[in-house]
């Protein structure tokens, strides 16, 4: 009768342990970037996932209309749900845009000042900023103000935004709005916004600027001429009187 | 007799101080509207015109007047305040200058109260741009109005009364 040598059994056991250890070490190295190199394909995939989760928004996005080098800059701090802001836009800024902004006399800049008493103004500001990123701000601003009565009851403004831009631009805007829909939008003296919303930093930047002016009501506007800033004015102003002021300013 | 003379003296002193204060208010208010709205900008006809155009926008925000009326008020009110301030300062015909100041302040106070009751969140424009319309501006404007009315009443009461003898003398001189 042949007996199996004892050392042969030990060798088999050691071999199994060694293989298991090697496999474990390999797995550890593969999963931990600190311990080893990540596979290039895996890294690209992770980056793509991150990009899809929160799109990159340039910090220098400006919601401006017209020539940046125009002699007069008018900065308007407004709230898309504020009735006076809509009246200012419809009756004063719209004729100004088609006349003095188009002719290069004024550079018009919009700043968001969503007020806490307006439930959907922050969300409207998000759409407007997403539009600014894809360079469709004027169209979306007009759509938001034109349909203010329709969306301010229930906050359903997406269809009006969609109607103002091309399908491709709307898709890009929707990508920017991922992570924004279910979270509180930034407001003046209220919610700081959501960290998962890509466009909220743009709104917060405007809110901080509004605090410096300071803006206590909307609409508030300031004029910058030859690098000098006029005191802030608030409330409604008719286009003929605003035009009179700008003409006077330009004649100096 | 002594108390009456003392009372007259006190009244005269009160009138002088009162008209100086009221004149100061109107002159400061006028200056704030006419001066260049940007610091370090030199005075010129163009700068005054620009300031008045800027003031017109503030008047417009009260939403009470048509554009034409706004332009008229904005371009005349600061000069009216200037003239009234100088008139009060001169002391000439004080009862009437004080009455004029009261009438103007009644109008301005009425407009600011109306705007506040309407819930307008605008600049007052009372002493130049940048001042918010709020409870403080109403209290201040109301106090100025009360002061002007008091000055008017005292000024009318302190007018030297024409005696019958003086009138007869004047009449006889006219006849002569």
Q: Can you walk through the features of this model?
A:
The complex is a heterodimer of chains A (252) and B (176). Chain A contains ten helices and six strands. Chain A has helices spanning 6-31, 40-53, 83-101, 121-133, 137-146, 148-151, 158-164, 167-176, 200-212, 239-251, and strands spanning 64-65, 72-78, 106-112, 220-225, 228-229, 233-234. In chain A, strands 1, 2, 3, 4, 5 and 6 form a six-stranded mixed β-sheet that branches. Chain A starts with 5 loop residues before the first helix and ends with a helix. Chain B is mainly α and 176 residues long. Chain B has one domain (2-37, 44-160). In chain B, 75% of the residues lie in helices and 0% in strands. In chain B, helix 1 (2-34) runs antiparallel to helix 3 (67-90) and helix 4 (94-117) runs antiparallel to helix 5 (135-157). Chain B is globular. Chains A and B meet through strand 5, strand 6 and helix 10 of A and helix 2 and helix 3 of B.
CATH superfamily of the largest domain in chain A: Glutaredoxin
Mean pLDDT of chain B: 88
**Which structural category do the helix and sheet elements of chain B fall into?**
mainly alpha
- Overall mean pLDDT of chain A stands at 82
Quaternary state reads heterodimer
Distance between the termini of chain B: 36 Å
- Strands of chain A, total number: 6
Note the main sheet of chain A: 6 strands, mixed
Helical content class of chain B: over 70%
Shape of chain B: globular
